[in-house]
Specification:
This protein is α+β, with helices and mostly antiparallel strands. Strand 10 (212-216) and strand 11 (219-221) form a beta hairpin. The chain has two domains: 2-51; 69-249, Beta Barrel (OB fold (Dihydrolipoamide Acetyltransferase, E2P)). Strands 1, 2, 3, 4, 5, 6, 9, 10 and 11 form a nine-stranded mixed sheet that branches. Helix content is 27%, strand content 27%. The protein has helices at residues 2-11, 15-51, 92-97, 236-249, and strands at residues 69-74, 103-118, 121-137, 145-150, 174-177, 180-181, 187-190, 193-196, 203-204, 212-216, 219-221.
Length: 251
């Protein structure tokens, strides 16, 4: 009798209860699949973000002369490891004549590290703002701010060969700067991409050794072998006097 009643009760089960049970079972099967799919999507998005696909057009508006390149500002110095650059041999006379350089004394007021994405290949540089105090050559005036590109990030502990003097730059440092003046033909190319350097800064150091005389807590920092006539200089005033003589000699 009890068995008959149980069969009758099962037979009278309402249809919506049966459907609800089926739906719950499907949910139990679907949720793990959705969770796995979401995890895969997160990995894909993370990979794309890391590779730069989802990073947008960059933080700098570039001219038509720049192709397949984006420039991003970085919140902190990147860890780029050991880099090596090769210096072109130059005499002290050639340093003052072979390049179109501005020469001025000033104080560093700001440093920005940037990533230059050249078609997926990244280069890490810095942009150094200098408030001009006095001008030895060029069109700048005292009180102007000059922005100089350096081919190394600043503020990290990474050692970069041939950037020894520039790597010592910090906000507040005073020095005599001799950067190259960029024009529309100053281009940097890599990996099928081109950057017009004038798009990010009007000036740049050809290397990080020979175009800067920096006053540091440890004394005057510059590449003394490149400037034999200034090897005994101890102050920025000594450097200004030396540069004045060199400009007269090479005029």
């Amino acid at each position: 009798m009890k068995a008959d009643l149980l069969i009758d009760a099962i037979g009278e089960a309402r249809e919506e209860y049966i459907l609800d049970a089926e739906t719950s079972e499907r949910r139990r099967r679907v949720w793990p699949a959705l969770t796995a799919a979401a995890a895969c999507l997160a990995v894909i998005i993370g990979t794309l973000a890391w590779s730069g696909v989802l990073r947008g057009p960059g933080d700098y508006e570039l001219s038509a002369r720049s192709q397949n390149v984006r420039v991003f500002e970085l919140r902190k110095p990147p860890e780029v490891g050991h880099n090596v650059y090769s210096l072109i041999p130059l005499t002290q006379e050639q340093i003052f004549t072979e390049w179109d350089t501005a020469i001025f004394r000033g104080t560093v007021t700001d440093i920005r590290n940037i990533e230059v994405d050249m078609n997926g290949e990244s280069f890490y540089w810095s942009l150094i703002s200098v408030e001009v105090k006095s001008v030895l050559r060029g069109d700048l005036q005292p009180g102007d701010t000059a922005v100089i590109r350096a081919e190394t990030p600043l503020g990290s502990d990474d050692w970069v060969e041939d950037q020894e003097v520039v790597s010592r730059i910090r906000v507040g440092a005073e020095g005599v700067f001799m950067p190259q003046v960029y024009d529309s033909e100053s281009l940097f190319g890599a990996n099928g991409a081109w950057l017009c350097l004038q798009d990010i800064a009007p000036y740049g150091f050809p290397d990080g050794v020979r175009w800067l005389f920096l006053d540091t807590p440890e004394g005057l920092a510059f590449d003394r072998p490149s400037f034999p006539s200034a090897s005994g200089a101890q102050t920025l005033e000594d450097i200004e006097a030396y540069i004045g003589r060199m400009l007269e000699r090479t005029a």
